[in-house]
Design brief:
- It is built from nine helices and eight strands.
- With 252 residues, it is an alpha+beta fold.
- It folds into two domains: 76 residues, Winged helix-like DNA-binding domain superfamily/Winged helix DNA-binding domain (Arc Repressor Mutant, subunit A), CATH 1.10.10; 165 residues, GAF domain (Beta-Lactamase, 2-Layer Sandwich), CATH 3.30.450.40.
- The protein has a six-stranded antiparallel beta sheet, sandwiched between helices.
- Helix 1 packs across helix 2 and helix 6 crosses helix 8.
Length: 252
């Protein structure tokens, strides 16, 4: 197969995926509506929908006009078993090679933040973590990253009326904490500056959803080292998220 054929195949697949996304967004869409949504010629839409229909990926509902997603997509989707740790571990290893300090991958389960994968620091003086550790949601970098992925009312409920003060730096005013998270959401980075443990600081970033779960990755280290390396830590986390999105998209 020459390079021209490879480009043609890739273009066809991309167009087919665009059509499937358009149909998912507007079930029952006509050829013309799909063409408008995908910026593809109507003839191309009609041809590709014919192929997708043969494979069971799209269908037409009995007695109705327009195109709908097919049951074959549901069957294929049911076979998918995504292991977030397996997907994200290579990115964590690259991050660790760059920074060398403690890295935690966390998820939100029943309103609680748990470490599900971890790479320990190379340094003699380090922040200690382990798989299974629960992070307070209101005063850790990971916790704030998870709160940023929720609507304000849900986040407020998880914080509670009187969040525990672990250090003098812990925010215990839920509204002030939510304002802090709102302000940081645009930049995408969330910090724990000795709010959970005196002498320790962390920065975290939320990741694309995998399946139906939220995930975040953090780098934690002694505060003095964080102050020297904060710019590098933040840049490395932003780069990691960009790589994950480039590899898997905004959700998996």
């Amino acid at each position: 197969m020459d390079k021209g054929e490879k480009r043609s195949d890739g273009q066809t697949i991309s167009r087919a995926v665009a059509i499937l996304k358009a149909v998912a967004a507007r079930p029952g869409a006509s050829f013309g509506q799909i063409a408008k949504a995908t910026d593809l010629p109507r003839s191309t839409v009609q041809r590709l929908i014919g192929v997708l229909n043969q494979e069971g990926l799209v269908t037409k509902a009995f007695g109705q006009q327009g195109t709908y997603l097919g049951m074959e997509l549901a069957r294929l989707g049911a076979q998918v078993r995504l292991d977030a740790r397996a997907l994200l571990r290579p990115f964590m290893e690259d991050l660790h090679a760059e920074i060398g300090d403690n890295i935690d991958l966390t998820t939100l389960e029943d309103g609680k933040v748990f470490v599900i994968e971890q790479i320990a620091s190379n340094e003699a003086i380090r922040v200690i973590s382990y798989v299974g550790l629960q992070h307070p949601i209101h005063c850790t970098a990971n916790g704030k990253a998870h709160l940023s992925m929720l609507d304000r009312a849900t986040a407020r409920a998880l914080i509670g009326a009187e969040p525990k003060a672990y250090t003098p730096n812990t925010r215990t005013d839920p509204e002030a904490l939510l304002d802090e998270i709102d302000a940081a959401r645009h930049g995408g980075l969330f910090a724990d500056n000795q709010e959970y443990d005196e002498g320790a600081s962390a920065v975290a970033i939320p990741l694309p959803r995998i399946g139906d779960k939220d995930f975040a990755i953090s780098i934690a280290m002694p505060t003095q080292r964080m102050e020297r390396q904060r710019d590098a830590v933040q840049a490395a986390l932003l780069s990691l998220r960009a790589k994950v999105v480039a590899e898997y998209g905004s959700s998996i």
